[in-house]
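Researcher: Go.
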Amino acid sequence: MKIISPPKSCMQNLLELAVVKMQQKVIPHITDEKNRYLHWDKIRHLKVPENFDDIEQYWHFIKFSRMQQQKTLPFIENFSFILTDDIQKNIHEIDSKMRGSLDSKNIDDNKDRYIIRSLIDEAISSSQLEGAATTRKVARDMLKYEKTPKDHSQKMIFNNYQAIKFINDHKEYDLTPSLILELHTIVANGTMNNSDVGEFRQDNEINVVDNSTGSVLHHPPDFEELPDRLEVLCSFANGSSPDYFIHPIIRAIIVHFALAFDHPFADGNGRTTRALFYWVILKNNYWLFQYITLSTYIKEAQAQYGESFLMVESDDFDLTYFINNQLKFINQSIKGLFDYVDNKQKQRQQALKLLSAYLANGKLNPRQAMIIQHAINHPGGGYTIAGHKLSHHVSYATAKSDLEKLEKLDLLQQSKRGRAFVFIAPNDLEQRIKAYQ
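Model: Structure:
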């Protein structure tokens, strides 16, 4: 992965160029002819537009136009961003979905179920981004059935799950360096040297490296600067700076970038960074985000994710590239959530229809109906009390009662695996239901 740094140009040349072009009636613009906010690495491959001598001149004119609209941020490197039309449109769409789209889907009926699904999937995807090597089924079973992690990868995922739950429980707190260290302790416990867990790195022997080529992509700041840098970051995350309004979603995205840029830990930076994004967003009452799994979509486009970091650093710390990239992932995550909710509600309606005779007689509740609907599509599948308890956010006694009643109705068959009882879906389950009706 290699990003070409933009060509150099002094301020005087930019100003002179802008004056000449405006005299030629060329309107200043921050995007290309297709309204794309492109980096030089993309611009250099375009056809030279009319009224420009070459592609570098075109780039310099765009840069001058952008400099007039940049908002400078209170970080040491003078990070900046531009509130483009696309960014404002994306933010508006997210806000609109926040206000009513999920309410219209009656998610409150199963909100605990959706939150647990989100916690599990985010923990798995965020850990896999940093190299956790395990299947989603194994990881989900570990978390769902509260199994002890068996290896380094499972431990990473288990820790991430605990970290995201920690954020949900502490989202009302102001962010401080000590809370970031506490979060890192949860993320890194048992996955790195104990002396480095919950501590800022004590040297500069860390770089962000391209795994395919071994080339260094980013040199993090000097470790001695970290305490001051984290104070600045926390002040920004809490909304204490700057002295103008920044939309909470953009603020959370900038916190994501800034901590990743600082790379304050010997390991676990990515997991901590993505967890902090959720902290800032939930602190600002964006409750929808407790249901989405952002890392799932980042993992599917890791090259674009990494490229957006490089674009920022190679173009005068213009965060617009990274903000655009993250907003795309957020919108994909929200769409993924809506699709998931729609699918689950269809399954629920199918289950209620199929099991109408049982429900009419009061023999089943909606939780049990959902299990049977799943069991029909997964003959031989097993259900445990611990898993049912976690999935439906009920007590152990309620989960036990649900499954035992399904066995008495001859809809599940009880077996034993090790010390745990497992309730198995019979191969002829649908025929049994139809016979009862």
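Model: Residues 11-69 form one domain.
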